[in-house]
Amino acid sequence: MARPVAGAGCALSETQMRALWEPEEKLIWQGWPDSHAAPRHESGFWLLFGSIWVAVGAVFTMVGYSVTASEPGMGMIFLALGIVLLCGGVGAITLPLILYRRRSRATHSLLTNRRAIVMDPELRSFPITPSMKVDDQPAKGRRAGSVFFGTVSTSYTNNEKPVIRPVGFTRITEAPEVVQAIRALQEKMRKMPEAAHV
User: Fold this and answer.
1) Which stretches within 2-39 are classed as H helix?
2) CA distance 30 to 174
3) Cβ distance 138 to 19 under 8 Å?
4) Which helix (H) or strand (E) covers residue 132, if one does?
5) Which long-range contacts does 99-102 make (Cβ < 8 Å, 24+ apart)?
6) Membrane-spanning regions, if any (predicted)?
7) Is the dihedral of CA 112, 114, 118, 119 positive or negative?
8) Which residue has better confidence, 146 or 165?
């Protein structure tokens, strides 16, 4: 897979982006991840964890409420614990969805006739070449498709080696059209004389 060229720190305006482009570079597509629903692998654990906390919190709250008349001190303790567990459970269920939507809004994807650009919020630029591998992940149910074409090293390690994660246009509704556009650009480059795209 392709490796990113130089990166910059934060999301850029369209004017700043165009300043980075080459003279003949043209915008083909731009988009953002679908923010309607977080993928199950990101929200599933927290949904289960939060549901358990909500269930236990509901039991504690009911026990505290029923015991308050005969044992006020014990009832208040159970009520307080129940409310804390309920709030923690609701937070565990909703927080991943809120964070996912915020992250989706901060991610911007651009495809030009020369490269693919991903800002999440770091700017990563991947030149489109005839040999660039394009991994198309089709949509599944409510989850939009993705197009991966590069890799980056993360700060995590596995057996003392950095974990590599794929980079691309994630969860975009126009994934098939974007893949087709990238492959058309690659095919055009293959047909050009070697000197034209070196």
Assistant:
1) 14-20
2) 10
3) no
4) none
5) 100/35, 100/38, 100/39, 100/42, 100/43, 101/35, 101/38
6) 45-65, 77-100
7) negative
8) 146
Distance CA 159, CA 18 (A): 41
pLDDT at 60: 92
Which residues lie closer than 8 Å to 36 by C-beta, 6 or more apart?
142
Query: In what helix (H) or strand (E) does residue 153 lie, and over which residues does it extend?
Result: strand 145-158
**pTM of the model as a whole:** 0.63
- Tokens representing residue 94 in the block: 């909703």
Q: Which amino acid is at 168?
A: G
Closest CA to 118 of 180, 188, 178, 183: 178
Q: What are 23's two structure tokens?
A: 């003279």
**β-bridge partners, 115:** 127
Residues in the chain: 198
Pairwise CA distance, residues 125 & 167, whole Å? 10
Tokens of 159: 């057996």
Tens digits of residue pLDDT in 123-140: 888 899 998 888 888 877
Q: Which residue has the tokens 């969860």?
A: 171
Cβ atoms of 76 and 61 closer than 8 Å: no
